[in-house]
Amino acid sequence: ATSAPCTAFCQRICIIMADLEVAENTEKKIAIASSGADAKNGCDVCAIKCWTKEGFIGSYDWRFLCTPQVPCLKAVDPPMYLAKDEKLPLALSLSFGLQHMLAMCVGIATSGGMLHANEACWTFRYDSELCDRQSFLVSCSWLASGLLTIIQVFRLRIVGTPYSIGTGLVSVMGTSFTFLPMGQAMITNYIEDAKATGDPRCLPNMPYKDTDTLVTDCQGVGVEAYGKFLGTAAVASLFEILIALTFNKKFVREKMFPPVVVGMAVLMIGGALISGGMKYFGGGVFCAQNMLSRSASFGGPQICNESGEVMLAFGAGQYWGLGLSVVLMGILIQMLGSPYLKSTFLFWSMMFGCLVSAIATYKDPATGETLGYWTDTRISNAPVFTFFWSEIQFTPGFAIEYFLPLLICSFITTAETIGDVKMTAKFSKVTDEAEIVARQQGGVLADGVNSIIACLCGSPPNTTFSQNNGIIALTKCASRSAGFACAGWLIFIGLFGKVGAAMASIPMPIVGGVILQCFTMVFVAGMQILGPLLKVRRNSFIVMLSLAFGLGVAMEPQVVAANGVSSFYGKNLDHIYGLWPRHLVCDEFPKVETEVSPSSCAVGNNAITVSEADCTLIGGTYTPAVTEMVETKTCANKNGNCCKKYNKGMDSLRTSIILVLKTPYGIAVIIALVLNLILPHEKEEEEDDDEPM
């Protein structure tokens, strides 16, 4: 009887030792796979004689990619599979690269500097220095994405280590959607705080853009905020490098980044951004968020002013028409287009929307003037050629209060990259598990290094673009020459400042029609990862609870911060109400003149309240009101003058926590990660739960 516990104990020790041996062998296989560098680091795929017919055109059958899929035409068989090390003719490489570039260039431009700088382009929140650089930031994003794609596709082995940098696959890089809300929040808060506290850089009665409207221009405040965003994001990207250097460990792969956490991260990135896409679709974010709050303050809605000369209220029928032109063109392409057009439908849909908006006009009912949806100011002012740092230099800074939210963004981006590389390896017919893990390690390391480089170049952090995996599956081309060609195309369009300016001049509903679909693609990618996992009860519970809070705060952000997304009177609401009101971290409140005793007019034995002039007329003795400066904790005005001096440490902590809790993918991923660590696996479900993603 006494030997039974000993026997069970020994059996348990044997199982643990066996698991450790398996883990050790797995790590050795991963190390071996990592050390096996691709031939010439991937450059060999470009070693072709392009001056020959075979090297320039080759014998590829183009019919499948170019034949429209209509009932009257005979279906064409798919082309042959082109492996990752396949050498392609130059024309074919450029064609496949163009296909990848067209599928991602819009997403890069919008999630890059375009929508960040847009937060400084409103009459109520204006920084001319940042707003005027919107097109330049678009070009920077394209340039950075092209250069960093080359690093990711190369797969360089780090000499003397078991690590590599890059996947050695067609893992194209672009600016990350994950960091977009944080960058926008920093620019918004810095400008609004500067206005509320009377920052000397906020100059009143300055011209707004090229109009006669006079506004307060907080010159350089948005530029400073964007620089701090880049610097803080670069520091947060060191997390990805740390994960890459420990990725061979089983705990990191299976506990920190299991499929259920990766899927939830991707799903909630899309879920958090879809509402933003709808706001752009209806005319613009600022006018959407403040339609009701401005009406309460000033008696009318905030007017959208991001569609050329046409300025209408959010959700106007004209804006709907422009946005739907993009969506309907995309549907038509999916119905009748060739595979090439289908894989790049976002670009062609946007082009059709631009054509519609260029032809359409709006007649102002008040003046009878005919107005257009385009203005050529940015295009005419933009230089022909541009490059990093040529127009403005963003000094990298560090904002401690935003570090935790940006660190969580880095975690989510890491999870997204792990899933992306897994899918790219699948479509590239890389089947050995150890080699897949080794390429994931290289991809995550390149993601971290590339994000730091991107921030130094003035572009938001970069990550792999998951939607481009669909092009690999469609074209059956996994050759890295397509990845190098895509990088070349991105650099090419980034060098021309006029192209970036044209992109930044597109009417906002057109942009909304495109990015609404971009953001939803990310959401659908998360659904595809999570779908097979939901048959396991444990995973279903994790997804349910994560979605409850993630989508909950997306729908009702004021449950965390009382101001929600409103700007008008928003600072006051945030100061007084909410989960953690900001007045609790204020050390010195502003003072307002308060009446201690009212004025009075003594007439005989009676005291009445009348004006001083009236009191003199009736022969009374007037006593003026007695006032004194009294500290107020409920704001000195309606525009955010609520605190003269905050407790810097506590205010930074509050900002970090509030941002994490009200960001859908912040709170959802934290819940998923914690639940995955603490919930036990049920024995009968372990086999299903461990299926590869």
What does this structure look like?
The protein has 693 residues and is mainly α. Helices cover 57% and strands 9% of the residues. The strands form eight sheets. It has a three-stranded antiparallel sheet with strand order 14-13-15. Helix 11 (259-281) packs across helix 18. The protein starts with a helix and ends with a helix. The model is unreliable at 1-9, 13-18 and 20-24 (pLDDT under 50).
Structural classification: mainly alpha
Q: In what order do the strands lie side by side in the largest sheet? A: 14-13-15
Proportion of residues in extended strands: 5-15%
> Can you count the helices?
29
In angstroms, what separates the terminal alpha carbons? 45 Å
Q: What is the global morphology?
A: globular
The main β sheet shows up as: 3 strands, antiparallel
**Ranges with pLDDT <50 over ≥5 residues?**
1-9, 13-18, 20-24
| Cα-atom radius of gyration | 29 Å
The overall pLDDT average reads 86
- How many DSSP E strands? 17
Binned, the helix content reads 55-70%
Observed structural traits:
two-stranded antiparallel ribbon, mainly alpha
Task: Describe the structure in brief.
The protein is mainly α and 693 residues long.
Strand and helix map with partners:
Layout: H1 3-35, H2 53-56, H3 63-66, H4 90-117, H5 128-131, H6 134-154, E1 156-157, E2 164-165, E3 173-175, H7 180-196, E4 202-207, E5 214-218, H8 221-236, H9 238-245, H10 250-256, H11 259-281, H12 285-289, H13 291-298, E6 303-307, E7 310-313, H14 317-336, H15 339-343, H16 345-359, E8 361-363, E9 370-372, H17 377-381, H18 400-427, H19 433-456, E10 462-464, H20 469-475, H21 480-495, H22 497-504, H23 508-530, H24 537-555, H25 570-576, E11 586-588, E12 591-597, E13 600-603, E14 606-608, H26 612-617, E15 621-623, E16 626-631, E17 645-646, H27 648-662, H28 664-678, H29 686-689
Antiparallel strand pairs: 1-2, 3-10, 4-5, 6-7, 8-9, 11-17, 12-16, 13-14, 13-15
